[in-house]
UniProtKB/TrEMBL annotation:
<dbReference type="InterPro" id="IPR016162">
    <property type="entry name" value="Ald_DH_N"/>
</dbReference>
<protein>
    <submittedName>
        <fullName>Aminomuconate-semialdehyde/2-hydroxymuconate-6-semialdehyde dehydrogenase</fullName>
        <ecNumber>1.2.1.32</ecNumber>
        <ecNumber>1.2.1.85</ecNumber>
    </submittedName>
</protein>
<comment type="similarity">
    <text>Belongs to the aldehyde dehydrogenase family.</text>
</comment>
<feature type="domain" description="Aldehyde dehydrogenase">
    <location>
        <begin position="20"/>
        <end position="480"/>
    </location>
</feature>
<dbReference type="InterPro" id="IPR015590">
    <property type="entry name" value="Aldehyde_DH_dom"/>
</dbReference>
<dbReference type="GO" id="GO:0047102">
    <property type="term" value="F:aminomuconate-semialdehyde dehydrogenase activity"/>
</dbReference>
<dbReference type="InterPro" id="IPR016161">
    <property type="entry name" value="Ald_DH/histidinol_DH"/>
</dbReference>
<dbReference type="Pfam" id="PF00171">
    <property type="entry name" value="Aldedh"/>
</dbReference>
<feature type="active site">
    <location>
        <position position="256"/>
    </location>
</feature>
<dbReference type="InterPro" id="IPR016160">
    <property type="entry name" value="Ald_DH_CS_CYS"/>
</dbReference>
<dbReference type="InterPro" id="IPR016163">
    <property type="entry name" value="Ald_DH_C"/>
</dbReference>
<dbReference type="InterPro" id="IPR029510">
    <property type="entry name" value="Ald_DH_CS_GLU"/>
</dbReference>
<keyword id="KW-0560">Oxidoreductase</keyword>
<keyword id="KW-0520">NAD</keyword>
Length: 485
């Protein structure tokens, strides 16, 4: 596991009971750099045997030193993990960009910094957690004793690999659990390093484990008899599979799933700010952020002006080598995903859409999966490009005349993750935002996060919430104890 330059290769092994191990059958697959199509290294494929070993190591660790470790010591270990992530920031950012195709500056600024911050946040938060207590007249005192859920499986996608893995691992450890991580097969590298970092920070062997592999590996974890909870981020359809696999053992489930998020621009908005942020919320990370606004609705009075200025700014985005400092949009994460996104561009054409920008693979690349940032107009509300999650640098823009008509379109979706509303009218900001069926609504901003707030989606965008007390509750069980007075 050595990574010195962007050409170097990394072998990704499982991390079980504090050691890096191969699969018992030695099976591997090749990890491909999406910007160059070069092989970055081999990745072990975990089967039921490796999942069994990892779960057994986690179960065993729950009865060891971890069980009675003083709160302060555990909190310090989390803090140390954050420090070690930052110590290795350059290396981790490079690995993340090699794996995902995203610009290096973005990996540094968002993925790695926020990964460290997840540990810092929960290191602090865990020391403040209280519990419920009720005095029942002079009869009894009731209090809820908190304990870890047990062995938790953490299954993650490829778009923000380390950031999202740590968003689950940090609260899981803060609440005293032992974990088995299953990173995305598409982006296995930073998670691999995380095993080593946890060990160096003082996490006892077996508390943090990781098994690489495809969907089957995640499925083995989801159906495992001795796993108590699954926290999953990924596609909605995969969530349904996990729910089925977990049903016989009634595991606790936390799901962060897909989205088709509306971005609403009223005529009274600060258009400059709205356009600048919309370029970011549409195309950052190649549009591969679950929170990206992919359905843009603009009040008719400013529709033409918005489109002109939005298209102009979008055309300025440099699509290119993730390691070039000028690059704003890198490569899509894999050939499979690239083909999926290009497929939607064909659908948009068939459906009668007009490309204001983009609409095709980016030119000038012999290798790699680059797509031009694409703005589509002229599509109706039943268009597949308006209804389905594309998860690439592709947005649709539609004008609206009334709030009633707008609300109907905004909520006419199975998804309910996030939305943005741009307006200078405070009454509208609160009134209209409250009617949107989404777990998160930003007003005059996007992606502004406070880790104490509830994060997650409604409808088919998720189950439960993450963040602060919400994460802590998911990773804890409560026993109500009644003391008779
Ligand atoms: P995916 O569902 O294909 O894969 C996610 C993970 O699940 C991978 O590790 C994969 O190996 C595993 N997996 C696949 N099949 C499985 C099965 N049957 N049982 C158990 N595990 C299985 O998702 P993806 O393509 O990696 O990620 C993109 C999706 O993630 C998008 O839909 C995006 O919106 C969503 N996402 C949501 C959030 C959020 O917070 N709501 C954040 C990021 C990404």
């Amino acid at each position: 596991m050595k990574t010195e330059t962007k050409q170097s290769v990394m072998e990704c092994l499982h991390f079980i009971n504090g050691e890096y191990v191969k699969s018992s059958n030695a099976k591997t697959f090749e990890n491909v750099n999406p910007a160059t199509e070069e092989v970055l290294g081999n990745v072990a494929i975990g089967g039921t045997e490796e999942v069994d070993q990892a779960v057994a190591a986690a179960r065993e660790a729950l009865n060891g030193e971890w069980k009675n470790m003083p709160l302060k010591k555990r909190s310090n270990i989390l803090r140390k993990i954050g420090d070690l992530i930052l110590d290795r920031k350059d290396e981790l950012a490079e690995l993340e960009s090699l794996d995902t195709g995203k610009p290096l500056w973005l990996s540094q600024k968002v993925d790695i910094d926020r990964a460290a911050n997840n540990f810092y946040f929960f290191a602090d938060y865990m020391t403040t957690v209280g519990t419920e207590a009720y005095e029942q007249d002079d009869i009894a005192i009731h209090y809820a004793k908190r304990r870890p859920v047990g062995v938790v499986g953490l299954i993650n996608p490829w778009n923000l690999p380390l950031f999202l893995m740590t968003w689950k691992l940090a609260p899981a450890l803060a609440a005293g659990n032992a974990a088995v991580m299953k990173p995305s097969e598409v982006t296995p590298m930073t998670a691999t390093v995380l095993g080593e970092i946890c060990k160096e920070a003082g996490v006892p062997d077996g508390v943090v484990n990781m098994v690489h592999g495809f969907g089957e590996t995640g499925a083995a974890l989801s159906s495992h008899e001795d796993v108590d909870a699954i926290a999953f981020t990924g596609e909605t359809i995969t969530g349904t599979e996990i729910m089925k696999a977990a049903a016989p053992t009634l595991k606790k489930l936390s799901f962060e799933l897909g989205g088709k998020n509306p971005n609403i621009i009223f005529a009274d908005a600060d258009l400059e700010d709205a356009i600048e942020t919309t370029v970011r919320s549409s195309f950052i990370n190649q549009g591969e952020v679950c929170l990206c606004g992919s359905r843009i609705y603009v009040e008719r009075q400013v529709y033409d002006e918005f489109l002109d200025r939005f298209a102009e700014k979008t055309k300025e985005l440099v699509v290119g080598d993730p390691f070039d400092a000028d690059t704003k949009v890198g490569a899509l994460v894999s050939e499979e995903h690239y083909q999926k996104v290009l497929g939607y561009l064909d659908i948009a054409k068939e459906e009668g859409g007009t490309f204001l920008t983009g609409g095709k693979a980016a030119e000038g690349f012999d290798k790699g999966f680059f797509v031009e940032p694409t703005i589509i107009t002229g599509l109706g509300k039943d268009s597949r490009c308006v209804r389905e999650e594309i998860f690439g640098p592709v947005v649709t823009v539609v004008p609206f005349d009334t709030e009633e008509e707008l609300l109907e379109q905004v909520n006419d979706t199975h998804y309910g993750l996030s939305a943005s509303v741009w307006t200078s009218d405070v009454k509208r900001a609160t009134g209209f935002s409250g009617k949107i069926e989404a777990g998160i609504v930003w007003v005059n901003t996007w992606f502004l996060r406070d880790l104490r707030t509830p994060f997650g989606g409604m409808k088919r965008s998720g189950l439960g919430r993450e963040g602060g007390a919400h994460s802590f509750d998911f990773y804890s069980e409560l026993t109500n104890i009644t003391l008779k007075m």
